[in-house]
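cron nightly-structures :: item 1 of 1
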Amino acid sequence: MVVSLRQLTMLGNFRILGFKIKRYRQWLNVLKEESASLTIGDWWGLVVLALKGIYHKREKGVGFSSKLRKCQKCVLYDASKKKCRPYEGSDLGCGCYMPFKIALGGGCWADENEIKEESVGWSGVK
């Protein structure tokens, strides 16, 4: 029996590894958009993150809600796609789907690249 993604979304609050089905659809859209700029190392990193998500589920104590709120206030965050890149083709931001990156223990692109601007990154957002 084959079940489509649309049929699964009809189940309401059905979750896989703690995330609603619509989050996976958003993640796939971000992957399609960013695929041209991904290197082999990036794809390998995605495989490792997926395996980490399957075997370890979400990391505990990462401050998911507070970090996602900081992302939402950051000027690099694209709220419609929930990703860290202000617009398509920009060199700023990592292009990651932030709900998954935060849940799997990833850090902030701006903080990792030591960008010290107001309203940028987890450390620059109040």
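cron nightly-structures :: done
Strands lie at 15-16, 19-20, 77-78, 83-84.
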